[in-house]
Specification:
Oligomer: single chain
Radius of gyration: 18 Å
Distance between the termini: 29 Å
Shape: globular
Order of helices and strands: HEEHEEEEE
Number of strands: 7
Number of helices: 2
Structural class: alpha+beta
Helix content: 10-25%
């Protein structure tokens, strides 16, 4: 799957798209809005080539003022970001809770 195909499937089809990028070596942060998925893809590739970690907003926005909830235009996908230590995964087996490593689940 191409980057453009992925973005087209998970992002809304209308509104302003937002890309955020951070680079740890000089603590720089960039946030920009784009009109098309093609522009998002190009910007992400350019920022990545410049050493940034690149992220995209899950929503599209009515304006380019901010990424706040009241400015959301479309939201097609919802993602879960589960941050948990490998040895602290909690799961339920036969009514009781156990901690185990991810590799054991």
């Amino acid at each position: 799957m191409t980057i453009k195909t992925f973005l087209s499937r998970v992002l809304g089809s209308e509104g302003n798209y937002c890309v955020f990028a951070a680079r740890s070596r000089d603590n720089r942060r960039v946030q920009k809005f784009y009109d098309t998925v093609d522009e998002v893809e190009a910007a992400a590739q350019d920022l990545d080539a410049d050493g940034y970690d690149v992220y995209f907003a899950l929503a599209t926005f009515k304006t380019t003022e901010n990424r706040k909830a009241d400015n959301v235009h479309q939201l097609r996908s919802i993602f879960l970001d589960l941050d948990c230590g490998c040895l602290n995964v909690l799961h339920r087996i036969e009514g009781e809770y156990y901690h185990s490593g991810v590799s054991q689940i």
